Amino acid sequence: MGVAEVSNVLWREREQLELLLFKLEEEQLVLASGRARWLPHATREVEVVLEQLRTSELLRAVEVDSYAESLGLGANPSLTELSQASPDPWRELLLAHRTGLLELTTEIAAISRANSEVIVTAQRAAHESLLALSGTHDTYAPTGRAASPARAHLIDRAL
User: Fold this and answer.
1) What are phi and psi of 81, to 5 degrees?
2) N or C: which end of the chain has fewer CB within 10 A?
3) Where are the domains of the chain?
4) Of the given ranges (31-35, 40-44, 90-94), which has the lowest mean pLDDT?
5) Is the dihedral angle over the CA atoms 80, 81, 85, 86 positive or is it negative?
């Protein structure tokens, strides 16, 4: 097992991360459209890609450890450590993989946060709408969390 196998696994992982980013953007478009009907399908597609990524991460760990051993490095080295111990042109290619992976994971984290915020906001709005229909309203604690329903009381202080 050598550096070429490590590079191939890293390319495959980058492709899967790009697919995950695409699926998250699809999910964001579904959320933005308000068509909740398709949200379970979009979410399921994200989960499928995440499962594929878990398998790729395991394969990458095996390949990296094997290559690291051939270089005299310890188990589970970072891509930076691996690239520094590798000869050119592999050094530059491994650093390019590292940069690509970092960029993709940054984008994925940002869109995941945005999607989560939209989902939480929609859930809160739906909850409040249901409470309005039932005639009760939640109040909020200083932490921003919903407190137990309170009943409003009008007091005529003139009496």
Assistant:
1) -60, -40
2) C
3) 3-134
4) 31-35
5) negative
